[in-house]
Specification:
The structure holds 2 protein chains of 2 kinds. Chain A is an alpha+beta fold. Helices cover 24% and strands 34% of the residues of chain A. Classes of the chains: A alpha+beta, B mainly alpha. The complex binds adenosine-5'-triphosphate and magnesium ion.
């Protein structure tokens, strides 16, 4: 059983506080993705778990053991680095087997483990090449192979796909997910790409400026964002936010004159005159006749399209509500000219209300 | 009426050809030729007497030559290895220093800035048996023996080696330090995660990466040391009684003191072979090591 826990973990670089006392409990076999914008402390957190960075304060445990003062080699972890970090002077075979050689495993066992990893990752053809003779994707696979050869308790990935082109990235994403299903180890995975986070994670840990903002399954973060940062970070295109003010108990007046009813989830939790941000996703604002037919409260809007982004199965329409740029989606798309005015339906049940001052979600 | 003209490239290169011929080619041919004559500086007419390989045969059966040859090889081996070890140590320590590293690097270069002659004089003074620094220190520490640093064969050899190392260890240190600066950090971290102790990381990751830099330093220094002349000449002059005689002091003695230039030139050609062998050896190692870490194609 390999749980990983972080309690009040803090990291100082000199006087600069990069991680502000985070708490996290990761279950055995769980695939957890740390995601957040650049510089938010994801790598730092991962490196503290790996033992490559001192822990300034707090406690990290792996499999029930406090590891704060253990060197990486005593933590039984594997790490895949962003730049692969292969040993340039060793062949693929030697790279894969290196950790076992260091652990003084016997030759037959090393050969077996290496062949197994090579099999899983399709490296058989490349075993006698040096890293310099491999493509980016192949190096990436070697780096992953090196990690799985040791059968570690925990896999740590630091943006392993960010140096690959888009197509290969999608492909490797699937490979990683398959790998997890196959070996079933605990995985902690760092990325700044929310698509990777959504597709891979059992649970997403969203970080910002050295704090954890929200922890939850991909769908929890998508459907119930705690604040506007989560709402705009998770999901593509990002959630539309429109400034407004509560009038009475039932209506939100968006600046610019448009009024919408308060969504059911927020009813009773807001007060007259409160400044809010009204949020909804492009998927919930669709032109009439080009939407999914769903039950629920709807509001009708007439909006002028300013720009279109056809994607094939759907087209993203750019429009404006109360002076804010807003994106909508059109299913079964037909060509739309900029300037055209369309009738839209807003799915009120799927809308979010955030307090304008604190940016926190208002939800029952 | 067309006059044949020399091709342009040839005309342009002609001055270079002439200069090279004058300063390299002609002396080379002349010295090679004279090594087949009993040429003595005091009797110029001997230059025209061809004796075939007589000089070479004489050298090959000359115990003095062979002892100088052996001593040179020994000197090379000791100096290169010690410089490598010390240089590696210094570079590794400097790499850890986070404050004032630039200043330290500059200080490290100081010994290289002195002329070998000055270094020779400096150590001649330091190791002098009467007024030298070392003996003074030893005496003030209570030892009453005045060690004959530059007179006893072994001690004199030690003193010369010490001076040579003092002067040139920084070549190794600086080249290896350059290697350490160029070293990617990721593989070191990967090694830590893969279970390496600090020593294993050094042995399996850092050292292979540094090998090309070490061989470059070796190549440069093997050429230097095989030519070692100035320091030895100043400190002991190859003496006393030839106990610190290296190839180059022997040669200059044969050529300029005994005036037997033909013989000296023959010695020169034999010892050049030694230099070439060392250089080729390290160069091969260098290529192999570069291939190892994927620097060469
Ligand atoms: N070695 C270091 N010394 C000083 N500050 C550092 C060091 N490493 C990181 N930082 C700082 O700590 C903060 C967090 O860095 P970290 O590398 O964890 O970010 P990240 O979330 O991984 O970002 P990215 O997505 O760009 O990799 C940043 O503000 C960074 O400038
Ligand atoms: Mg990072």
């Amino acid at each position: 059983m390999t749980e990983v826990t972080l309690s009040n973990v803090v990291k100082y670089y000199g006087k600069h506080r990069a991680v502000h006392g985070i708490n996290l409990a990761i279950n055995d076999g769980e695939f957890v993705v740390l995601v957040g914008p650049s510089g938010c402390g994801k790598s730092t957190t991962l490196r503290m778990i790996a033992g490559l960075e001192d822990i300034s304060d707090g406690e990290v445990t792996i499999a029930g053991r406090v590891v704060n003062d253990l060197p990486p080699r005593e933590r039984n972890i594997s790490m895949v680095f962003q730049n692969y970090a292969l040993y340039p002077h060793m062949t693929v075979r030697e790279n894969l087997g290196f950790s076992l050689v260091i652990a003084k495993a016997d030759e037959a066992a090393i050969a077996k483990a290496v062949d197994e990893a090579a099999e899983i990752l399709g490296l058989n053809e490349l075993m006698d090449r040096k890293p310099a003779e491999l493509s980016g994707g192949q190096r990436q696979r070697v780096a992953m192979g090196r990690a799985i050869v040791r059968h570690p308790d925990v896999f740590l990935f630091d943006e392993p796909l960010s140096n690959l082109d888009a197509k290969l990235r999608t492909q490797m994403r699937v490979e990683i997910k398959k790998l997890h299903q196959r070996v079933g180890n605990t995985i902690i995975y760092v990325t700044h790409d929310q698509v990777e986070a959504m597709t891979l994670a059992d649970r997403i840990v969203l970080m910002q400026d050295g704090h954890i903002v929200q922890v939850g399954t991909p769908l929890e973060l998508f459907n119930k964002p705690n604040n506007t940062f989560v709402a705009t970070f998770i999901g593509s295109p990002p959630m539309n936010l429109v400034d407004g003010k509560v009038v009475g108990a039932e209506t939100i007046e968006l600046y610019g004159g448009l009024s919408v009813p308060v969504p059911a989830a927020a009813r009773g939790l807001i007060s007259d005159g409160q400044h809010v941000k009204f949020g909804f996703r492009a998927d919930n604002l669709m032109p009439v006749g080009h939407s999914v037919q769903e039950e629920g409260e709807k509001a009708d809007l007439e909006l002028k399209v300013t720009l279109t982004e056809p994607l094939g199965t759907e087209t993203v329409l750019f429009t404006e509500i109360a002076g804010n740029e807003v994106q909508a989606k059109m299913l079964n798309p037909r060509p739309v000219r900029p300037g055209e005015v369309l009738k839209f339906q807003l799915m009120l049940d799927k809308c979010h209300v955030f307090d304008a001052a604190s940016a926190e979600a208002i939800r029952g | 009426m067309t006059r044949r003209r020399l091709p342009e490239w040839f005309v342009l290169l002609l001055p270079a050809f002439i200069v090279i011929a004058a300063v390299v080619l002609i002396p080379l041919i002349f010295s090679l030729y004279s090594s087949f004559t009993p040429y003595k500086l005091t009797r110029p007419s001997t230059l025209w007497k061809w004796v075939g390989t007589f000089n070479y045969e004489k050298i090959l059966s000359d115990a003095k030559f062979w002892s100088a040859f052996g001593r040179t090889v020994l000197f090379l081996t000791i100096v290169l290895n010690l410089e490598l070890l010390l240089g590696l140590g210094i570079a590794l320590m400097m790499n850890k220093v986070t404050w004032g590293q630039r200043t330290l690097r500059t200080i490290l270069m100081f010994p290289m800035m002195f002329s070998p002659i000055l270094v020779g004089f400096q150590f001649k003074f330091i190791f002098n048996d009467n007024i030298g620094l070392v003996n003074n220190v030893l005496q003030s520490l209570g030892s009453d023996a005045a060690l004959p640093w530059l007179v006893d064969g072994k001690l004199a050899m030690f003193s010369i080696i010490f001076a040579e190392i003092w002067m040139s260890t920084s070549v190794f240190a600086i080249l290896i330090l350059a290697g350490l600066f160029a070293m990617p950090r990721d593989p070191l971290e990967a090694a830590k995660v893969d279970g390496c102790t600090a020593w294993q990381t050094f042995r399996h990751i850092t050292l292979p990466f540094l090998m090309p830099f070490i061989y470059i330093a070796m190549t440069i220094r093997s050429l230097d040391v095989a030519r070692a002349y100035d320091i030895v000449q100043i400190m002991t002059g190859g003496g006393p009684a030839r106990r610190t005689e290296l190839l180059w002091t022997l040669m200059s003695r044969t050529g300029y003191v005994d005036a037997r230039m033909g013989l000296a030139n023959a010695m020169g050609y034999v010892s050049i072979i030694l230099s070439i062998l060392f250089t080729v050896y390290f160069f091969r190692k260098l290529s192999a090591a570069r291939g190892q870490i994927g620097m060469a194609g």
